[in-house]
Amino acid sequence: PAVEIAAQILGDTPSGRLYKNLVETKKAVSVSNINFEFKEPSFLMFIAQVSKDASIDAARDTMIETIESTGVKAATKEEVERAKTSALKNIELTLNDPNRVGLGMSEYIAVGDWRLFFLYRDRLEKVTPEDVTTAAKKYFKQSNRTVAMFIPTEKPDRADIPTVTDSEITAMVSDYKGREAVAQGEAFDPSPENIDKRTTRLNIGGLKVAYLPKENRGDTVYARMTLRFGNEKTLMNRGTAASFAGRLLMRGTKNRTRQQIQDEFDKLKARVGVGGGATSANVSIETTRENLPAVLKLVAEILKEPAFPESEFNLIKEESITNLESQRSEPTNVAIYAMQKQFNRYKKGDIRYSGTLDEDIADTKAVTIQQVKDFYKDFYGASNGELAIVGDFDPKEITPLVTQLFGNWKSPGKYERLSNDFADIPAVNQAFETPDKANAFFIARLNVKLRDDNPDYPALYVGNYMLGGGFLNSRLASRIRQKEGLSYGVGSSFNPSSLDENATFFANAIYAPQNADKLEAAFKDEIMKATTEGFTKEEVEDAKKGLLLAAQRNRASDPGLAGALTNDLFLGRTF
């Protein structure tokens, strides 16, 4: 547990020591960490992404000095409490979700015993700054690290990491007593009829709202909100500024720093995402019944009072440019950019325009903080949008709060949905060389003039599932992956619009370059068989059974329900 807290103190963004010493000093554009926990001795990894014009030696030296000085520069009480709050929040939220509980228990069974999960939580709570400093001094030392450029020492001083036997684990957990049980949820019927029956729909200002209150394990509640703005004319040439405005929302408000926002959400036991693009801003919330009002207030502060700190803007800009530059020789990115350009039918400046990588880099370099602030001022508001809340909450308590926070927040401009009409794009077959890359990427696309309420859509939905949507048991996977061994990952998708007669069929595969001809031949052969010979009755029945089961499982997931209700409010649909 002390190593876990040490890793958080070093690797967290934006409070971590590595972030402050590397990113804020512009020696790196981002930092992260991964703590692998196995039954056997495992390892802790710290990662820094460095822009091409920065010194990798300087970044490496600063990273090493920061990590290995942790045992000397003692952890502060504030650092430890912040890291513990974040780690314990994630554990508590895990215990509220049956899927996460199952996965979490299986991991600790693999380590030795499922009760280690709870023992680990209890030990985390007791970690002190002294524990962190001692652990860092013990493990974070020169002889125990590997860097990208590894130089062995003549007489290495390896850290002695003890093994733990099964009997020792048994002794550790033999007398462990569990804590008081968390609140249990109801047995919820996820049928479309019951969902519609249990859902209340209303309007609050410009927001269409859906409530689905239900008793949940751990009193959990989920919310999704979308705010819509802009039109074809007003959004012209403002796509990049819109993207930056959305990414900066969580980076600070007029009253709180980025770190204070993160700390407050941790205290409220909430996972929250707030972002936006050219036509909408989006919010996702996972929290508990008692904390939902405070979380909604903080979300409103983030949306309505962003600070747009220039330092954070510069960090995002540098990171974006570095990420875009790194895509020049990546097969997947090269193929996707080429595909988007081939299917583009909008002029530059239109937010639906798909251009080149060079254009994206130029646009990113050119955007200014003032353009970002102007975009927010010209578009953000709650005159058009949707909000769905699912889980343990009281609508009588939440409705006045939502009204107070968003009911009178008007959008400056007029909102008009941008259509995406069908275009019959001529067929092409293109290949691109990416030197020094041992992998290759295949992608295929076809536009289809069809909307999801077309009578033919269910058949196409099931047909694509059998062709390539069912992963390992689909025809493409059975042929190309299992039988011929040409690709590790292969599949297809069929994506219709709900508002425009415009659907897309996609297929893709990862493969070795020397197998390109074989892969394409097998793909075309399976397409031909599907369109000429069709599918068997058994295939269709199995596909329908699998798809209906997956749909039922999605309806039983509160995050999925909240997202679906938000989308249905926009479309004017019921389950």
Task: Describe it.
Helices cover about 45% and strands about 15% of the residues. The strands form three sheets. The protein has a six-stranded mixed beta sheet with strand order 3-4-8-5-7-6, with helices on both faces. A three-stranded antiparallel beta sheet has the order 9-11-10. It is globular. α2 runs antiparallel to α3 (about 55-70) and α19 (about 475-485) runs antiparallel to α20 (about 515-530). It has 22 helices and eleven strands. It has helices spanning about 1-10, 15-25, 55-70, 75-95, 100-110, 115-125, 130-140, 165-175, 190-200, 240-250, 260-265, 290-305, 310-325, 330-345, 355-365, 370-380, 395-405, 455-470, 475-485, 515-530, 535-555, 560-570, and strands at about 30-35, 45-50, 200-205, 205-215, 220-230, 270-275, 280-290, 385-390, 440-450, 485-495, 505-510. The longest helix is centred in the first third of the chain and has 19 residues, at about 75-95. By secondary structure, it is of the alpha+beta class. It starts with a helix and ends with a helix.
